[in-house]
């Protein structure tokens, strides 16, 4: 049966509620991606204390249990009630770490020193990009890190159709440069079909 949707605006929770409710989730990796596993392993060997991490737009929160088991303090948020329900149902003992919250209004109870990005930035329309980057910067102090997966295209002009919404490498660098410096970028080889060939693992340090 073909999915039927009445909501067409990804800025609103109803858009995502419908898709989760109907099982239309082509962005769901349903596993912990390798680059994140590698980063966590390196972090454990080189850092003395675990980070306080936020996962915005967490969806199914597939990475939550892995990060918690690694000793990280993690909060996963989503403004879609259906997404929060899906996450809580699958993360078991870590369900208390999942909250229904709007990223732009969320205030952490303790200061963050890491944000993990996974298909949140590319889920929102291009008009929201500057606001997302600015909010990342507001939430992270100098020296903190933004890590994760970014959907980028080498072309300077990309289609505005989505989600997922592609961003050009040049535009993304321009948005980030006032607040962050990129300290690692690698093209991803194990992407889902919807992201294939355009997904980059990146680590950014807050200036």
UniProtKB/TrEMBL annotation:
The portions of this protein that span the membrane are none
Q: Pfam families, alphabetically?
A: TPMT (PF05724)
Give yes or no: UniProt keyword Transmembrane helix: no
Keywords of the record: Methyltransferase, Phosphoprotein, S-adenosyl-L-methionine, Transferase
Q: Which InterPro entries match?
A: SAM-dependent_MTases_sf, TPMT
Looking at the keywords, is Zinc-finger present? no
Any idea what this protein is called?
A: SAM-dependent methyltransferase
């Amino acid at each position: 049966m073909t999915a039927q949707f009445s909501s067409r605006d990804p800025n609103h929770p109803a858009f995502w509620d419908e898709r989760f409710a109907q099982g239309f989730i082509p962005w769901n990796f349903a596993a912990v991606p390798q680059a994140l596993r590698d980063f966590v392993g390196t972090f454990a060997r080189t850092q003395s204390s675990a980070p306080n991490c936020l996962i915005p737009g967490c969806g199914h929160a597939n990475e939550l249990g892995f990060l918690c088991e690694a000793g990280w303090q993690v909060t996963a948020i989503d403004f879609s009630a259906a997404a929060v329900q899906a996450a809580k149902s699958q993360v078991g003992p870590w369900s208390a770490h999942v909250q229904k919250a709007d990223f732009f209004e969320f205030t952490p109870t303790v200061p963050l020193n890491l944000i993990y990005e996974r298909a949140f930035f590319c889920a929102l329309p291009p008009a929201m990009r500057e606001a997302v980057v600015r909010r990342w910067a507001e939430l992270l102090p100098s020296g903190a890190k933004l890590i994760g997966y970014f959907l980028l295209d080498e072309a300077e002009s990309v289609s505005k159709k989505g989600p997922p919404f592609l961003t050009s490498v040049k535009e993304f660098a321009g948005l980030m440069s006032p607040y962050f410096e990129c300290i690692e970028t690698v093209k991803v080889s194990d992407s889902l079909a919807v992201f294939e060939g355009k997904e980059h693992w990146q680590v950014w340090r807050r200036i």
